[in-house]
Amino acid sequence: MTDRAPRARATRSELRAWAWVAGGLALVAPWAAIAASPTSTGDGERPTVVVRRVTRRVIVTHPTQPAGVRSVAVGGGSSSPPAAPAPATTTGGS
Amino acid sequence: MNAHTVAFRAMGTDVSLVGPAGSGSFHGAHLAVRAMFEREERRCSRFRADSELSRVNANAGTWTTVSEGFAGVVAFALDAARRTDGRFDPTVLEAVVAAGYDRDFDEMLAGARARLRLPVRCGRWDEVELRDRQLRLPAGVGLDLGGVAKGWTVDVAAGEAVEAGLPWALVNAGGDLRLCGCPPEGGIEIGIEDPEDPSAELGRLRLVRGALATSSVTRRAWGPDLHHLIDPRSARPADGRVLQATVWAPTCAEAEVAAKDVLLSGEAALDRSAGVVVLRDGEVHSSLEAA
Question: Which residue has the higher pLDDT, B215 or B120?
Fold first, then answer.
């Protein structure tokens, strides 16, 4: 059986030094994270977003045959909230 | 109007059953509609190696015995090709595959890359022979029953839902829909989606009876000018003036054919069909009466 040397206790000044180091790191860490985060590329130019407004011109021709469907005039469009309750279902191609 | 809706996915699209809220028959009707879609998908899907359609396409050049239901869909499709002078063509399979639509669309949505090939000639529908339940395709020709089989299934499923006890039922498969039974007075409101912004409503219709189908070049698309609607005259995806055509007909299978015909023919075709057409330049043509 071997005797192990007793572990040396940190001195008060050593503990104080470690406390200063930990405090300093905690203070710097947020700034380091911000500095390391990705920045926008290019020469500081912002990307251009083009918004295209779709204009519709409705042309109604005289019905040539009786049909089991009629058109309903309601509000709508992509830029305004619907003016009527939602329809039962929709059709839009498949 | 108090309506209840259930939705599920079949035939590579969203399917919904709409019926009166509070009906005790709704669950049974839902099961019947699902069963119809499962049956017809097993029969008519070109993406299932074990489907009747895949067996017929694999046997092109020889006679194949088909089921009565399958023969019915093929007979309807061949008759539609005759009535539209081939603008509706059930033999566009090789052309649509050459355009890149060679797998289930859910796989393409998941990011599968399209393989493009040179266009393959269409218009060989008049060489297809159907005698009762015996079917023979010309060698090198494949059938694509996609849209018309979906419309046919919608018709059958809506009828089944009413048979199951619903006073009225509307079945919608990716915008192809059929109303059966006795709907509430004034009909059922249907929104037409804007082809350039599906979240916006282009207009609204009130369906009293029959069916609606919409064909659009902005849906089921996988690249610029690459979509599933083949123009048989060029054997390429259609690139005419029309973005979207919504057409009414007594049955969904007929509406599906008429919508494709109008999309390929242009707004002038509204003199023989009741519907709404959206053009690339922003014009919207309607031949419907106002409610």
Answer: B215
By Cβ distance, the residue of A58, A84, A91 closest to B193 is A91
Between CA B176 and CA B182, with CA B179 as vertex, the angle to 5 degrees is 175
How many angstroms away from the CA of B285 is the closest CA of chain A?
A: 5
Residue positions counted in chain A: 94
Q: Are B196 and B56 in contact (CB under 8 A)?
A: no
**Residues 188-217 (B) with a CB less than 8 A from some CB of A:** 188-210, 212-216
Q: How far apart are the first and last CA of chain B?
A: 17
Highest average pLDDT, of A84-93, B150-159, B260-269, comes from B150-159
pLDDT tens digits, A66-81: 789 998 875 544 444 4
Q: Is B55 helix (H, G, I), strand (E, B) or coil?
A: helix
Q: Is A76 on the interface with B (CB under 8 A)?
A: yes
The dihedral sign for the CA sequence B213, B214, B220, B226: positive
The token pair at B199 is: 């979240």
CA pair distance B145, B89, nearest whole angstrom: 9
